[in-house]
Amino acid sequence: MKSKSKVKKALIPAAGLGTRFLPATKTVPKELLPIVDTPTIQYIVQEVVDSGIETVVLITGKGKAAIEDHFDLYSELEEKLESEGKTDLLDKLREASNMIRAVSIRQRNPRGLGHAVLCAKEVIGDEPFVILLGDDLVDSDVPCTKQMIDVYEKHEKSVVALMEVEDEDVPKFGIGSGEKIADRVYSLNQMVEKPSLEEAPSNLAFVGRYILNPEIFEILEKTDPGKGGEIQLTDAMAQLMKTQGFLGYKFEGQRYDAGDKFGFIQANIAYAMKRPDIAPRLKEYMKMLVAS
Questions:
Q1: What is the pLDDT of residue 291?
Q2: What is the distance between the alpha carbons of residues 157 and 283, in angstroms, rounded to a whole number?
């Protein structure tokens, strides 16, 4: 059944342990690791805000309370900065707390991305919603989420962000294939979670942006654990595809995997190069490194 509701809620799963960044993530959630001076998840939330969405559902876990705190008021620090006349820092501090209306849900027993999404069923209700993975950054002129909302509202079908990947990276992603029906838009007919290169139907990988119709929750409740013993969102999406159809969208923009060490460094360099207070010195430093 098609849903004609507007996309008004965003879901950000942030319950992962961040083991790839140990020991840094022993006490600091990976989503709060900074890209230059701004936590990764704040860039994700900014994309949500710039796409016209005000309500964000955070799926957190043990040791992730700092994420909620980041988007909360910090009156003592605000008063200190104000008394010292540090208005620039004060504005930056308030920016995070004023960004969104946040709802936090604890995923007590992490069982995969599908399970994390299912945890939000009661809050999301009977309306479409967007999922943004907390370590996937997309730098684009038009926010990736807004691009996808436009596609969703035109076709009234669930949408997943697509990106072409190299052969060696195919087994790291959910992979889809289908017929191209418009510029950058595909009507998907196959979805496979982390296939081998031989099993993969294409090299079009699912990136961390999804817009899903609410019927996904009923499917997730009946989805058996898949690869890794986890409830895979891709498996549920494949079922939704059979009953409602499903679109893939090759987004415009540069994606950075901030959950990977090299991707995290790439993102820091790329975002620093956009900063006039940092870029000139960084350029000179990189020239010096290359020369040496």
A1: 92
A2: 44
CA nearest to 254, candidates 270, 273, 274 = 270
- Tokens of residue 162, six digits: 């697509």
Query: Which residues are bridge partners to 274 per DSSP?
Result: none
Alpha carbon distance 4, 127 (integer Å): 9
Q: How many degrees, rounded to 5, is the angle at CA 69 between CA 45 and CA 97? A: 50
What confidence score (pLDDT) does residue 14 get? Answer: 85
Amino acid identity of 25? T
Domains of the chain: 9-291 (3.90.550.10)
> Does the bond joining 23 to the residue before it have cis omega, within 30 degrees of 0?
yes
Residue that the structure tokens 């003592």 belong to:
76
Question: Which parts of the chain register pLDDT below 70?
Answer: 1-4, 73-75, 78, 90-100, 227-228
| Cis geometry, peptide bond prior to residue 214 (ω within 30 degrees of 0) | no
Beta-carbon count within 10 A of 3 CB: 18
Confidence (pLDDT) at 1: 43
Task: Return the pLDDT at 223.
Answer: 86
CB 33 within 8 A of CB 21: yes
* DSSP3 helix / strand / coil % (the chain, rounded to 5): 40, 25, 35
Q: How far apart are CA 189 and CA 176, in angstroms?
A: 8
pTM here is 0.88
Cβ atoms < 10 Å from Cβ of 129: 24
For residue 72, give the H/E element and its range: none
| Per-residue pLDDT at 227 | 67
Predicted local distance difference test score (pLDDT) of residue 2: 46
Task: Work out the end-to-end distance of the chain between its first and last CA atoms, rounded to an integer number of angstroms.
Answer: 62
Tokens 């817009």: give the residue: 211
Q: What pLDDT, on the 0 to 100 scale, is given for residue 141?
A: 94
